[in-house]
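so my prof wants the structure for this chain in the tokens format not the other one, which i didnt know existed until like an hour ago. anyway here's the sequence
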Amino acid sequence: MFVLGNFIAAVARIIDAALTIYMWIIIIRAVLSWVNPDPYNPIVRLLYRVTEPVMALVRRWIPLRGMGIDFSPIIILLAIVFLQSFLVKSLMELAYTLR
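here's what i got, hopefully its the right format
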């Protein structure tokens, strides 16, 4: 069973790394929105292409448009922290019990 435990631990680490990278992408997108970047810059276009589907989904579920502030990055960051605290730690503990 140690092989399954090692596999689950590896999956948990990959999920944790992917969530951390996506968290930084969301933070960079939020900071860029304050300075009004060039929309034709390839990096800016990549950031928007990667983050907009998730942000649009959050905006559709929680419509806070009338306030003037976009809270979707904050909600996404909270969801990422929750997933890292709950899902990744649960997978790691499951992996340790299978070893």
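also thought this was worth mentioning. The chain has one domain: 2-98.
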